[in-house]
Amino acid sequence: MTRQMTMVGFLQAQNCTNLAMSWRHRDSRTDFMSADFYQEIGRTLERGKFHLGFFDDRLALPDRYGGDHAHAIEHGIRVVKLDPVAVLMAMGMATTHLGLGATCSTTYYEPFHVARQFATVDHLSGGRAAWNVVTSLNEGEAWNMGRDEVAEHDSRYDQADEFMQVVTGHWKSWDADALVVNKQTGLFAHPDKVHRLNHVGENFRSRGPFTVPRTPQGHPVIIQAGQSGRGRRFAGRWAEIIFAGGGPLAVQQRGYKAVKDEIAAAGRNPDQVHLCTLVHTVCAATKSEAEDKMAYIETLPLEIDALSLLSEALNFDFATKAMDEPFTDAEMASIGGIQTMRDRVVQASGKQNPTTRDFITITGRGRPHGAIVGGPKDVADKLEELFVNRGCDGFVVAATHVPGSYADFVDHVVPELQRRGLYHQDYKGKTLRENLGLAVPE
Ligand SMILES: Cc1cc2nc3c(=O)[nH]c(=O)nc-3n(C[C@H](O)[C@H](O)[C@H](O)COP(=O)(O)O)c2cc1C
Questions:
Q1: Quick check: CB of 136 below 6 Å from ligand 1?
Q2: Is the C-beta atom of 235 inside 6 A of ligand 1?
């Protein structure tokens, strides 16, 4: 069968998209605390046959910059953050085929709780649930969740490995044929087909039995987006969909190969894991119309958006540095957030000690950095190039405003990709696994 793209909508249960400026966009809906807002997004993605819509999450609002939240509140920098699983269910009730993904942290919850939440979504949605596994990197999250500091990077992944053992263990602890519910015989379920997990480990203890029977997908689909070496090893072991951060083709090809090698090294089939890369698209019926849209979007970001988001992503207070003051060696070493982002700035600037300005311009934080702008042909050409040359297996489509960005993609780009045979015409099955061609876990 010919290889076709996997399409994922990058969603936020918040007041803006991943671009803080998006709430100021003239076409953005502002009722982001209503169910209808998310339901319209869901219906739009489903109209475009998206495999999955997934909500990111953080357990804090941005207050690393200057150690205060006032700037974030004033400018609406990702300050509203609703519970993504509750929002996911609202979206799920308005759709029938769209996969439903949400992010949940392995650092701040109990595995039993997370296993039960996502198993419940899988049942209620008829087998469409997916869980984006993150380890959480901000101090603000630690402080909201009863910790003094963020645990060290690699140890978070070690804990996440154990978390996954518990979660997947519970998910498999009801045999697929355990449930009977026979009113005539009075047998509800086979006692010998429901097992205690009896997990006792370094970080977690959970006895079981689990309280949710085997789900329609066997278990929810696992998503992961670790970019570091340790993160990729974790993804290689567990993930069925992997998110990558985008970038030029050569960078993506290297990342793609590294991730697929990790999957093979973990003894799994690399073809059973979809690697999707982040893209911002600004599209319209014609190239010049799209360029006009982009010109307007370029007027929306503020410098404070970038400073605030960089402070969060790198877990470093950018208010302590002047715009053109180089970071010291100690400051560079103290960056504990997304280290691959720091390393990219060192590489692209050619400086061991880059400045705040270098961080802003190279990362493009808060801006639709590297957005693909154009008519149907322009955008489809670019996506085709990344896909066909094995930079990725599909895309995580981010929005400059909602729901209009997704509608533009669905109306202008999807038909062109379908015409080229690069993207499915319709859903193949009912469950997310069926639509992704993923095997049901044993
Ligand atoms: C498309 C995409 C979505 C992500 N969503 C989240 C998220 O919702 N919450 C979160 O804490 N991290 C999120 N991340 C960050 C990753 O989970 C990961 O922490 C980060 O890439 C750093 O990787 P590392 O921990 O392996 O260094 C996302 C990354 C990408 C590329």
A1: yes
A2: no
The length of the chain is 442
Residue 278 in contact with ligand 1 by CB distance below 6 A: yes
**CB 276 near ligand 1, within 6 Å:** no
Supply the residue whose CA is at minimum distance from atom 8 of ligand 1: 56
Distance (Å, whole) CA 165 – CA 152: 20
Query: What distance in angstroms lies between residue 226's CA and the mean position of ligand 1's atoms?
Result: 6
Cβ neighbours for 124, distance < 8 A, ≥ 6 positions apart: 89, 92
pTM: 0.96
Work out the number of other CB atoms within 10 angstroms of the CB of residue 414: 18
> Which three-class secondary structure state does DSSP give residue 355?
strand
Alpha helix ranges (H) inside 246-338: 249-265, 287-297, 303-314, 329-334
Alpha helices in 350-428 (DSSP H): 356-363, 376-388, 404-408, 414-419
6: nearest Cα among 241, 210, 171, 214: 241
Report the nearest-CA residue for atom 6 of ligand 1. Answer: 56
Instruction: Report residue 408 CA to chain centroid gap.
Output: 21
Q: Judging by beta carbons within 10 Å of its beta carbon (0-12, 13-18, 19+), is residue 70 exposed, middle or buried? A: exposed
Proportion of the chain in helix, strand, coil states, percent, rounded to 5? 45, 15, 40
Tens-digit pLDDT profile for residues 131-145: 999 999 888 999 999
Residue type, position 183, single letter: K
CB 321 within 8 A of CB 356: yes
- For 301-351, the pLDDT digits (tens) are 999 999 999 999 998 999 999 999 999 999 999 887 788 899 999 999 999
Task: Report strand pairing: 199-200 vs 205-206.
Answer: antiparallel
